[in-house]
């Protein structure tokens, strides 16, 4: 179980943004947190939005009544932007009525504190909400990362494939997918044991990450001993080159596999698929094509790359 950030002296100090147009209020909050938080200060709504994007605070303490952009508007803007929507906002305001409180919570605030502030109460509430935020971040992260190899898991891959598919359809740029499967891995486990098998998978992933290393490239564990490399803005030739490097890198690891009929050390088979210029975001089609190529690579003797590009839609028209 990871150490809770507040109990860990080496963890970075939580980052707090204090927003209030009155210097006296800013000072009171600053003093309540300066000892064990990194505190940023904004005196207007516009400045607050800019600082959130620059400083990525863990929590925002937000005054409601301010000239110009008020607290409700700032909170709504933060919640409308996926980049900032998860940052907890606590309203700090002199208004002590239920209507204001409800409106604040409706705007997406997690809590409400009234002025004049009681430093101990504000500190306790802030601590609670930062801890909750950090725990939620950790869970989100765990849900997307493969525990053994540290790369994207299948769930994360499915999501990113859809995102990149839409991007490729919009931009008209190609998108390539490599499906990589370790050859005769059952026999590897049978001979060397499951722990050695796990170690082998980790090293294979490292080799894949080395070759699929351009900005935007991603490696995922699709399942068991099967991996995916998604290569945005990469055409068929480039994808085949990456696949050839991956083949070589894995073989170059020199992990002994005495029971493999393919080679004396661990090999992979790779299926490559690339979209065509008319790609309409059919990521299921791209995936199926890569999977078929992987199957063909296995059938053709393993330890090799087989690839294909998606057929142009117009070549299918009139076929019936
Ligand atoms: P092929 O060349 O046709 O791919 O043969 P294969 O033996 O690799 O394929 P098969 O699908 O028959 O077996 C896959 C094996 O991978 C079976 C399973 O025990 C092993 N495996 C799957 N996940 C893990 C894992 O996380 N750790 C270890 N050590 N082994 C795993
Ligand atoms: Mg296999
Ligand atoms: Mg397999």
Topology:
Elements: E1 15-19, H1 23-33, E2 38-42, H2 45-55, E3 59-63, H3 71-80, E4 89-93, H4 98-106, E5 111-114, H5 119-142, H6 154-171, E6 175-182, H7 185-192, H8 194-211, E7 218-223, E8 226-232, H9 236-253, E9 268-274, H10 283-299, E10 305-309, H11 313-316
Parallel strand pairs: 1-2, 1-3, 3-4, 4-5, 9-10
Antiparallel strand pairs: 6-8, 6-9, 7-8
Helix pairs in contact: 1-5, 2-3, 7-8, 8-9
This protein binds 3'-deoxy-guanosine-5'-triphosphate (GH3) and magnesium ion (2 copies).
The site of 3'-deoxy-guanosine-5'-triphosphate has 16 residues, from strand 6, helix 7 and helix 8.
Descriptive overview:
The protein has 320 residues and is of the alpha/beta class. The chain contains 11 helices and 10 strands. Strands 2-1-3-4-5 form a 5-stranded parallel sheet, with helices on both faces. Bound molecules: 3'-deoxy-guanosine-5'-triphosphate (GH3) and magnesium ion (2 copies). Residues 181, 224-226 line the site of one magnesium ion (MG).
């Amino acid at each position: 179980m990871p150490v809770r950030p507040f109990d860990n002296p080496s963890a970075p100090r939580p980052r707090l943004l204090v927003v209030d147009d009155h210097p006296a209020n800013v000072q009171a909050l600053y003093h309540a947190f300066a000892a064990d938080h990194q505190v940023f200060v904004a005196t207007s709504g516009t400045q607050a939005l800019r600082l959130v994007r620059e400083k990525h605070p863990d929590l925002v303490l937000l005054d409601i009544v301010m000239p110009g952009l008020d607290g409700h508007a700032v909170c709504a803007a933060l919640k409308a932007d996926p980049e900032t929507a998860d940052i907890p906002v606590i309203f700090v305001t002199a208004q002590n009525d239920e209507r204001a409180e409800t409106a604040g919570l409706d705007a997406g605030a997690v809590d409400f504190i009234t002025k004049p502030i009681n430093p101990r109460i504000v500190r306790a509430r802030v601590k609670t909400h930062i801890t909750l935020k950090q725990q939620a971040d950790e869970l989100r992260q765990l849900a997307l990362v493969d525990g053994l190899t540290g790369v994207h898991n299948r769930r994360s891959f499915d999501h990113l494939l859809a995102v990149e598919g839409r991007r490729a359809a919009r931009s008209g740029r190609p998108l390539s997918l490599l499906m990589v499967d370790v050859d005769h891995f059952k026999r590897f486990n049978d001979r060397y044991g499951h722990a050695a098998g796990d170690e082998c998978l980790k090293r294979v992933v490292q080799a894949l990450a080395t070759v699929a290393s351009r900005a935007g490239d991603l490696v995922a564990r699709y399942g068991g001993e099967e991996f995916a490399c998604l290569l945005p803005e990469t055409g068929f030739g480039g994808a085949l080159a990456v696949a050839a490097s991956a083949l070589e890198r894995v073989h170059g690891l020199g992990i002994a596999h005495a029971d493999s009929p393919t080679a004396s050390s661990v090999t992979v088979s790779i299926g490559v698929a690339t979209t065509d210029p008319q790609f309409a975001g059919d990521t299921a089609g791209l995936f199926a094509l890569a999977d078929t190529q992987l199957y063909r690579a296995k059938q053709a003797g393993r330890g090799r790359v087989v690839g294909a590009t998606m057929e142009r839609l117009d070549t299918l028209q009139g076929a019936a």
